[in-house]
Amino acid sequence: MPSDSPRAVVPLTPTGQPAPTQSFYDAVGGEATFQRLVDEFYAQVAEDPIMRPMYPEEDLAPAARRFKMFLEQYWGGPHAYSEERGHPRLRMRHAPFTIGDRERDAWLRCMRHAMDVVALAPEYDKAMWEYMERAADFMRNA
């Protein structure tokens, strides 16, 4: 089960001392980075024969907006998701969809592509990818 907050990536100064704290969200570029990640992800979803049917809306924009708000909040950015939608309740929100290994793998394939395009620094990519894998595993219900 994914935790409610990301693992901290603590940057060090050249002397090896912890640098002033900065959220993961800010360290990776803030809103612009998360917007690009979500845009790239949903571009893949729109073309994926496994993923696209899981999004019943004609327009993927509402789902993309919600996902961006969720990711931003999770990684230390604005709390718009909670303010608008309350607790994430990820499993409950995904319960109407059958999510097995095939769907998990398709979701991760779309996300890996998006993350590769965004090209975070290796330590941030590693932390985010580990979260994405845990979250995808947690969402399986079939």
Give the oligomeric state of the chains in this entry, treating copies of one chain as homo and distinct chains as hetero: single chain
> What fold name stands as the CATH topology?
Globin-like
Shape: globular
Per DSSP E runs of 2 or more residues, the count of β-strands stands at 0
3D architecture notes:
With about 140 residues, the chain is mainly α. It has one domain: Globin-like, CATH 1.10.490. Helices cover about 60% and strands about 0% of the residues. The protein contains 7 helices and no strands. It has helices at about 25, 30-45, 60-75, 80-85, 90-95, 100-120, 120-140. α2 packs across α6 and α6 (about 100-120) runs antiparallel to α7 (about 120-140). The chain starts with about 25 loop residues before the first helix and ends with a helix. The mean pLDDT is about 85. Its cofactor is heme. Keywords: Heme, Hydroxylation, Iron, Metal-binding, Oxygen transport, Transport.
Produce the secondary structure layout.
Layout: H1 24-27, H2 30-47, H3 61-74, H4 80-85, H5 90-94, H6 101-118, H7 122-139
Helix pairs in contact: 2-3, 2-6, 6-7
Features:
single chain, 142 residues, mainly alpha, Globin-like, 7 helices, globular, oxygen transport, Group 2 truncated hemoglobin GlbO, Hemoglobin_trunc, GlbO/GLB3-like
What is the structure about, briefly put?
58% of the residues lie in helices and 0% in strands. With 142 residues, it is mainly alpha-helical.
